Amino acid sequence: MGALGKREFVMPSSKAAELLDYYEILGLEAGCSKSDVSKAYRKKSLAVHPDRYKGSDPEWAVAEFHRLVQAKEVLEDDKARAAFDALIRARNAHKEKQKAQEAGRKKLREELEAREADAKRQRFEPSAAEMAARQQAEEDGARAELEREIERLRRTGRLDGGAAARRDGAAAAPAAASAPAPAPAAAATPAKLALRWAAEAQLSADAVRALLIELGAPEGVALAVVGHKGVAEFARAEDAHKLMERAFELTARGVRASWVGEAPARPAARDAAADARAAADGLLPAGWKLHQAPDGRPYYYHVASRKTQWTRPAAEAERGSAEDLERLEGVTMMRLRQASERQKLAEAMRAEEAAAAEPSQPT
Protein backbone atom coordinates (compact mmCIF):
# COMPACT_ATOMS: atom_id res chain seq x y z
CA MET A 1 0.00 0.00 0.00
CA GLY A 2 2.95 2.32 -0.69
CA ALA A 3 3.60 4.83 2.05
CA LEU A 4 1.04 3.17 4.34
CA GLY A 5 3.32 0.10 4.75
CA LYS A 6 2.04 -3.25 5.98
CA ARG A 7 -1.68 -3.33 6.64
CA GLU A 8 -2.35 -3.62 10.34
CA PHE A 9 -5.71 -3.00 11.98
CA VAL A 10 -5.74 -1.12 15.24
CA MET A 11 -9.10 -0.88 16.97
CA PRO A 12 -9.90 2.80 17.44
CA SER A 13 -10.47 4.22 20.84
CA SER A 14 -13.94 4.18 22.32
CA LYS A 15 -14.25 7.92 21.77
CA ALA A 16 -13.38 7.57 18.08
CA ALA A 17 -15.72 4.63 17.69
CA GLU A 18 -18.53 6.75 19.05
CA LEU A 19 -17.85 9.41 16.47
CA LEU A 20 -17.45 7.24 13.34
CA ASP A 21 -20.07 5.24 11.52
CA TYR A 22 -18.18 2.93 9.19
CA TYR A 23 -21.28 1.96 7.25
CA GLU A 24 -22.03 5.62 6.60
CA ILE A 25 -18.39 6.31 5.53
CA LEU A 26 -18.64 3.65 2.82
CA GLY A 27 -22.27 4.46 2.00
CA LEU A 28 -23.51 0.99 3.04
CA GLU A 29 -26.24 -0.44 5.22
CA ALA A 30 -25.75 -2.76 8.19
CA GLY A 31 -25.74 -6.40 7.14
CA CYS A 32 -23.91 -5.81 3.83
CA SER A 33 -21.49 -8.47 2.54
CA LYS A 34 -17.69 -8.29 2.45
CA SER A 35 -17.90 -8.02 -1.33
CA ASP A 36 -20.09 -4.91 -0.95
CA VAL A 37 -17.49 -3.46 1.42
CA SER A 38 -14.62 -4.12 -1.04
CA LYS A 39 -16.51 -2.60 -3.98
CA ALA A 40 -17.48 0.51 -2.02
CA TYR A 41 -13.93 0.95 -0.77
CA ARG A 42 -12.39 0.71 -4.23
CA LYS A 43 -14.85 3.17 -5.70
CA LYS A 44 -14.42 5.81 -3.00
CA SER A 45 -10.67 5.39 -2.42
CA LEU A 46 -9.77 6.13 -6.04
CA ALA A 47 -10.79 9.74 -5.60
CA VAL A 48 -8.72 10.39 -2.49
CA HIS A 49 -5.75 7.98 -2.79
CA PRO A 50 -2.56 9.92 -1.97
CA ASP A 51 -0.87 8.65 -5.14
CA ARG A 52 -3.76 9.76 -7.37
CA TYR A 53 -5.28 12.81 -5.69
CA LYS A 54 -4.58 16.01 -7.68
CA GLY A 55 -6.80 18.37 -5.76
CA SER A 56 -5.95 21.49 -3.75
CA ASP A 57 -6.38 19.93 -0.27
CA PRO A 58 -4.05 16.89 0.00
CA GLU A 59 -4.33 16.84 3.80
CA TRP A 60 -8.06 16.31 3.63
CA ALA A 61 -7.58 13.59 1.01
CA VAL A 62 -5.13 11.73 3.25
CA ALA A 63 -7.50 11.96 6.23
CA GLU A 64 -10.46 10.80 4.13
CA PHE A 65 -8.40 7.93 2.71
CA HIS A 66 -7.46 6.79 6.20
CA ARG A 67 -11.16 6.88 7.18
CA LEU A 68 -12.02 4.66 4.22
CA VAL A 69 -9.20 2.26 5.06
CA GLN A 70 -10.33 2.09 8.69
CA ALA A 71 -13.91 1.43 7.71
CA LYS A 72 -12.89 -1.29 5.21
CA GLU A 73 -10.65 -3.05 7.73
CA VAL A 74 -13.29 -3.03 10.47
CA LEU A 75 -16.12 -4.26 8.25
CA GLU A 76 -14.03 -6.97 6.53
CA ASP A 77 -12.80 -8.43 9.81
CA ASP A 78 -15.43 -10.64 11.44
CA LYS A 79 -14.46 -9.96 15.04
CA ALA A 80 -13.95 -6.22 14.53
CA ARG A 81 -17.25 -5.96 12.66
CA ALA A 82 -19.06 -7.87 15.40
CA ALA A 83 -17.61 -5.50 18.00
CA PHE A 84 -18.63 -2.49 15.91
CA ASP A 85 -22.16 -3.84 15.39
CA ALA A 86 -22.41 -4.42 19.14
CA LEU A 87 -21.34 -0.84 19.70
CA ILE A 88 -23.95 0.40 17.21
CA ARG A 89 -26.67 -1.65 18.92
CA ALA A 90 -25.66 -0.37 22.35
CA ARG A 91 -25.58 3.20 21.11
CA ASN A 92 -29.00 2.86 19.46
CA ALA A 93 -30.42 1.21 22.58
CA HIS A 94 -29.06 4.08 24.65
CA LYS A 95 -30.70 6.60 22.32
CA GLU A 96 -34.03 4.76 22.47
CA LYS A 97 -33.83 4.63 26.24
CA GLN A 98 -33.11 8.33 26.40
CA LYS A 99 -36.00 8.99 24.01
CA ALA A 100 -38.36 6.87 26.13
CA GLN A 101 -37.22 8.62 29.29
CA GLU A 102 -37.75 12.01 27.70
CA ALA A 103 -41.23 10.95 26.54
CA GLY A 104 -42.02 9.77 30.06
CA ARG A 105 -40.82 13.03 31.56
CA LYS A 106 -42.86 14.97 29.01
CA LYS A 107 -45.97 12.94 29.87
CA LEU A 108 -45.43 13.53 33.59
CA ARG A 109 -45.07 17.27 32.98
CA GLU A 110 -48.29 17.34 30.94
CA GLU A 111 -50.18 15.35 33.60
CA LEU A 112 -48.86 17.64 36.32
CA GLU A 113 -49.87 20.74 34.35
CA ALA A 114 -53.32 19.24 33.71
CA ARG A 115 -53.78 18.50 37.44
CA GLU A 116 -52.70 22.01 38.32
CA ALA A 117 -55.14 23.46 35.77
CA ASP A 118 -57.97 21.30 37.18
CA ALA A 119 -57.13 22.44 40.69
CA LYS A 120 -57.28 26.09 39.59
CA ARG A 121 -60.65 25.55 37.87
CA GLN A 122 -62.04 23.84 40.95
CA ARG A 123 -60.92 26.77 43.11
CA PHE A 124 -62.44 29.45 40.88
CA GLU A 125 -65.26 27.69 38.98
CA PRO A 126 -68.32 26.20 40.71
CA SER A 127 -69.15 22.56 40.10
CA ALA A 128 -72.32 21.36 38.38
CA ALA A 129 -73.85 20.55 41.77
CA GLU A 130 -73.02 24.04 43.06
CA MET A 131 -74.53 25.64 39.97
CA ALA A 132 -77.70 23.56 40.37
CA ALA A 133 -77.89 24.53 44.03
CA ARG A 134 -77.53 28.21 43.16
CA GLN A 135 -80.24 28.01 40.51
CA GLN A 136 -82.54 26.18 42.91
CA ALA A 137 -81.87 28.81 45.56
CA GLU A 138 -82.72 31.57 43.06
CA GLU A 139 -85.96 29.83 42.12
CA ASP A 140 -86.89 29.25 45.77
CA GLY A 141 -86.18 32.91 46.49
CA ALA A 142 -88.39 33.96 43.57
CA ARG A 143 -91.22 31.74 44.81
CA ALA A 144 -90.94 33.09 48.35
CA GLU A 145 -90.97 36.67 47.07
CA LEU A 146 -94.01 35.88 44.94
CA GLU A 147 -95.89 34.44 47.92
CA ARG A 148 -95.15 37.59 49.91
CA GLU A 149 -96.39 39.80 47.07
CA ILE A 150 -99.53 37.69 46.62
CA GLU A 151 -100.29 37.88 50.33
CA ARG A 152 -99.84 41.66 50.23
CA LEU A 153 -102.23 41.91 47.28
CA ARG A 154 -104.76 39.70 49.07
CA ARG A 155 -104.62 41.93 52.14
CA THR A 156 -105.38 44.97 49.99
CA GLY A 157 -108.16 43.13 48.17
CA ARG A 158 -106.65 43.66 44.73
CA LEU A 159 -106.77 39.98 43.79
CA ASP A 160 -110.45 39.29 44.56
CA GLY A 161 -111.98 42.57 43.46
CA GLY A 162 -112.88 43.46 47.05
CA ALA A 163 -111.40 46.93 46.86
CA ALA A 164 -113.53 47.86 43.85
CA ALA A 165 -116.60 46.41 45.52
CA ARG A 166 -116.01 48.38 48.71
CA ARG A 167 -115.62 51.58 46.68
CA ASP A 168 -119.03 50.96 45.14
CA GLY A 169 -120.57 49.44 48.26
CA ALA A 170 -122.96 52.30 48.95
CA ALA A 171 -124.44 52.11 45.47
CA ALA A 172 -124.51 48.33 45.43
CA ALA A 173 -126.35 47.92 48.77
CA PRO A 174 -129.83 49.15 47.57
CA ALA A 175 -129.58 47.04 44.46
CA ALA A 176 -128.66 43.99 46.51
CA ALA A 177 -131.67 44.54 48.80
CA SER A 178 -134.19 44.80 45.95
CA ALA A 179 -132.81 42.22 43.57
CA PRO A 180 -132.78 38.47 44.23
CA ALA A 181 -129.39 37.11 45.28
CA PRO A 182 -127.60 35.57 42.29
CA ALA A 183 -126.10 32.11 42.43
CA PRO A 184 -122.57 32.20 43.81
CA ALA A 185 -119.95 32.33 41.08
CA ALA A 186 -117.52 29.47 40.74
CA ALA A 187 -114.20 30.15 42.40
CA ALA A 188 -111.56 31.29 39.95
CA THR A 189 -108.67 28.88 39.40
CA PRO A 190 -105.29 30.55 39.94
CA ALA A 191 -102.33 29.78 37.66
CA LYS A 192 -98.60 30.47 37.76
CA LEU A 193 -96.13 31.09 34.95
CA ALA A 194 -92.33 30.86 35.21
CA LEU A 195 -90.51 33.65 33.35
CA ARG A 196 -86.87 33.62 32.23
CA TRP A 197 -84.75 36.05 30.23
CA ALA A 198 -81.08 36.54 29.41
CA ALA A 199 -78.96 37.82 32.28
CA GLU A 200 -77.54 40.60 30.12
CA ALA A 201 -81.08 41.93 29.47
CA GLN A 202 -81.20 43.26 33.07
CA LEU A 203 -85.00 43.58 33.17
CA SER A 204 -86.50 45.04 36.31
CA ALA A 205 -89.71 43.82 37.93
CA ASP A 206 -91.54 46.95 36.70
CA ALA A 207 -90.33 46.38 33.13
CA VAL A 208 -91.47 42.75 33.15
CA ARG A 209 -94.85 43.69 34.67
CA ALA A 210 -95.35 46.39 32.03
CA LEU A 211 -94.54 43.87 29.29
CA LEU A 212 -97.04 41.34 30.66
CA ILE A 213 -99.77 43.94 30.92
CA GLU A 214 -98.98 45.17 27.40
CA LEU A 215 -99.55 41.63 26.10
CA GLY A 216 -102.90 41.22 27.88
CA ALA A 217 -102.17 40.32 31.49
CA PRO A 218 -104.51 41.94 34.07
CA GLU A 219 -103.35 44.91 36.11
CA GLY A 220 -103.46 42.87 39.33
CA VAL A 221 -101.03 40.17 38.19
CA ALA A 222 -98.69 39.25 41.04
CA LEU A 223 -95.03 39.17 40.03
CA ALA A 224 -91.82 38.29 41.85
CA VAL A 225 -88.41 38.74 40.18
CA VAL A 226 -85.04 37.43 41.35
CA GLY A 227 -82.06 37.96 39.03
CA HIS A 228 -83.07 37.03 35.49
CA LYS A 229 -86.01 34.82 36.58
CA GLY A 230 -89.51 35.53 37.79
CA VAL A 231 -92.83 33.95 38.68
CA ALA A 232 -96.20 35.49 37.79
CA GLU A 233 -99.43 34.39 39.48
CA PHE A 234 -102.81 35.01 37.88
CA ALA A 235 -106.01 34.99 39.89
CA ARG A 236 -107.75 33.38 36.90
CA ALA A 237 -106.26 30.59 34.80
CA GLU A 238 -108.03 32.10 31.78
CA ASP A 239 -105.80 35.19 32.00
CA ALA A 240 -102.70 33.01 32.04
CA HIS A 241 -103.96 31.05 29.02
CA LYS A 242 -104.56 34.29 27.14
CA LEU A 243 -100.98 35.38 27.82
CA MET A 244 -99.60 32.00 26.71
CA GLU A 245 -101.51 32.42 23.44
CA ARG A 246 -99.15 35.32 22.77
CA ALA A 247 -96.06 33.55 24.10
CA PHE A 248 -94.34 34.00 20.73
CA GLU A 249 -94.59 37.78 21.15
CA LEU A 250 -93.21 37.46 24.66
CA THR A 251 -90.30 35.39 23.33
CA ALA A 252 -89.67 37.97 20.62
CA ARG A 253 -89.25 40.55 23.41
CA GLY A 254 -86.63 38.34 25.10
CA VAL A 255 -88.78 36.67 27.81
CA ARG A 256 -89.64 32.94 27.79
CA ALA A 257 -92.77 31.78 29.63
CA SER A 258 -93.69 28.29 30.84
CA TRP A 259 -96.24 26.81 33.21
CA VAL A 260 -95.28 26.20 36.85
CA GLY A 261 -96.37 22.64 37.36
CA GLU A 262 -99.16 21.23 35.22
CA ALA A 263 -101.09 23.71 33.08
CA PRO A 264 -104.60 24.25 34.52
CA ALA A 265 -107.58 23.29 32.42
CA ARG A 266 -108.99 26.14 30.44
CA PRO A 267 -112.66 27.01 31.08
CA ALA A 268 -114.99 25.78 28.38
CA ALA A 269 -116.55 29.22 27.89
CA ARG A 270 -114.63 31.45 25.51
CA ASP A 271 -114.77 35.20 25.53
CA ALA A 272 -116.09 37.21 22.63
CA ALA A 273 -112.67 38.07 21.26
CA ALA A 274 -111.70 34.38 21.16
CA ASP A 275 -114.95 33.60 19.34
CA ALA A 276 -114.18 36.31 16.80
CA ARG A 277 -110.64 34.98 16.28
CA ALA A 278 -111.93 31.45 15.82
CA ALA A 279 -114.51 32.61 13.27
CA ALA A 280 -111.95 34.68 11.40
CA ASP A 281 -109.39 31.83 11.46
CA GLY A 282 -111.85 29.68 9.57
CA LEU A 283 -111.75 32.20 6.71
CA LEU A 284 -107.93 32.36 6.59
CA PRO A 285 -105.51 30.11 4.66
CA ALA A 286 -104.19 27.09 6.52
CA GLY A 287 -101.60 27.94 9.19
CA TRP A 288 -102.63 31.60 9.65
CA LYS A 289 -104.16 32.98 12.86
CA LEU A 290 -105.76 36.31 13.70
CA HIS A 291 -104.45 38.28 16.72
CA GLN A 292 -104.98 41.73 18.17
CA ALA A 293 -102.17 44.23 18.74
CA PRO A 294 -101.98 46.22 22.01
CA ASP A 295 -103.43 49.25 20.22
CA GLY A 296 -106.47 47.21 19.15
CA ARG A 297 -105.51 46.68 15.50
CA PRO A 298 -105.88 43.12 14.14
CA TYR A 299 -102.83 41.43 12.63
CA TYR A 300 -102.12 38.00 11.15
CA TYR A 301 -99.62 35.40 12.38
CA HIS A 302 -98.35 32.29 10.54
CA VAL A 303 -97.74 29.49 13.06
CA ALA A 304 -95.06 27.52 11.13
CA SER A 305 -92.90 30.42 9.90
CA ARG A 306 -93.75 32.90 12.76
CA LYS A 307 -94.34 35.55 10.13
CA THR A 308 -96.63 38.48 11.03
CA GLN A 309 -98.34 41.01 8.79
CA TRP A 310 -101.07 43.64 8.97
CA THR A 311 -102.84 42.69 5.71
CA ARG A 312 -104.96 39.59 5.42
CA PRO A 313 -102.99 36.71 3.80
CA ALA A 314 -104.28 35.07 0.65
CA ALA A 315 -103.76 31.38 -0.20
CA GLU A 316 -101.98 30.49 -3.45
CA ALA A 317 -104.98 28.52 -4.64
CA GLU A 318 -107.46 31.20 -3.52
CA ARG A 319 -109.51 32.70 -6.33
CA GLY A 320 -111.98 35.54 -6.35
CA SER A 321 -112.47 39.09 -7.43
CA ALA A 322 -111.47 42.22 -5.57
CA GLU A 323 -115.10 42.68 -4.55
CA ASP A 324 -115.09 39.23 -2.89
CA LEU A 325 -111.97 40.06 -0.91
CA GLU A 326 -113.38 43.42 0.22
CA ARG A 327 -116.64 41.74 1.25
CA LEU A 328 -114.70 39.09 3.22
CA GLU A 329 -112.63 41.74 5.00
CA GLY A 330 -115.78 43.69 5.78
CA VAL A 331 -117.38 40.61 7.34
CA THR A 332 -114.25 39.97 9.40
CA MET A 333 -114.13 43.55 10.73
CA MET A 334 -117.86 43.47 11.51
CA ARG A 335 -117.39 40.26 13.50
CA LEU A 336 -114.48 41.78 15.37
CA ARG A 337 -116.56 44.83 16.30
CA GLN A 338 -119.43 42.60 17.43
CA ALA A 339 -117.05 40.48 19.47
CA SER A 340 -115.59 43.58 21.12
CA GLU A 341 -119.06 44.83 22.00
CA ARG A 342 -120.01 41.43 23.44
CA GLN A 343 -116.82 41.39 25.51
CA LYS A 344 -117.52 44.84 26.95
CA LEU A 345 -121.10 43.82 27.77
CA ALA A 346 -119.90 40.60 29.46
CA GLU A 347 -117.37 42.53 31.55
CA ALA A 348 -120.03 45.02 32.63
CA MET A 349 -122.35 42.16 33.65
CA ARG A 350 -119.58 40.46 35.64
CA ALA A 351 -118.83 43.73 37.44
CA GLU A 352 -122.52 44.13 38.36
CA GLU A 353 -122.71 40.53 39.62
CA ALA A 354 -119.56 40.99 41.72
CA ALA A 355 -120.93 44.19 43.21
CA ALA A 356 -124.27 42.52 43.99
CA ALA A 357 -122.57 39.52 45.63
CA GLU A 358 -120.48 41.71 48.01
CA PRO A 359 -122.09 41.92 51.51
CA SER A 360 -123.49 45.33 52.32
CA GLN A 361 -121.31 47.52 54.55
CA PRO A 362 -122.72 48.77 57.87
CA THR A 363 -123.50 52.43 57.84
Structure description:
By secondary structure, the chain is an alpha+beta fold. The protein is 57% helix and 10% strand. It folds into 3 domains: 2-94, DnaJ domain (Helix Hairpins, Orthogonal Bundle), CATH 1.10.287.110; 134-166 and 193-266, Alpha-Beta Plaits, CATH 3.30.70.330; 269-355, Ubiquitin Ligase Nedd4, Chain: W, CATH 2.20.70.10.
Précis, in short:
With 363 residues, this protein is α+β, with helices and mostly antiparallel strands.
Helices and strands, with pairings:
Blueprint: H1 14-19, H2 22-26, H3 34-48, H4 58-76, H5 78-124, H6 128-156, H7 162-167, H8 169-178, E1 191-197, H9 205-214, E2 222-226, E3 229-234, H10 237-245, H11 247-252, E4 255-259, H12 272-281, E5 288-292, E6 298-302, E7 308-309, H13 322-357
Antiparallel strand pairs: 1-3, 1-4, 2-3, 5-6, 6-7
Helix pairs in contact: 3-4, 4-5, 8-13, 12-13
Question: Keyphrases for this structure?
Answer:
single chain, Alpha-Beta Plaits, Helix Hairpins, 363 residues, Ubiquitin Ligase Nedd4, Chain: W, 3 domains, 3-stranded antiparallel beta sheet, alpha+beta, 13 helices
In one word, what is the shape? elongated
Summarize model confidence as the mean pLDDT.
76
Q: How many alpha or pi helices? A: 13
Catalogue the unreliable spans: 1-17, 161-168, 170-186
Within the CATH hierarchy, at the fold level, what is the topology of the largest domain? Alpha-Beta Plaits
Strand order of the largest sheet: 2-3-1-4
Number of domains: 3
* Ends apart, CA distance between termini: 146 Å
Let me know the number of strands.
7
Helix content: 55-70%
What is the ordering of alpha helices and beta strands?
HHHHHHHHEHEEHHEHEEEH
Q: Major beta sheet, specifics?
A: 4 strands, antiparallel
Roughly how many Å is the radius of gyration?
Answer: 48 Å
CATH class division of the largest domain: Alpha Beta
Label the CATH architecture of the largest domain: 2-Layer Sandwich
Strand proportion, as a percent range, falls in 5-15%
> Which class best fits the helix and strand makeup?
alpha+beta
Q: CATH superfamily of the largest domain, please?
A: RRM (RNA recognition motif) domain
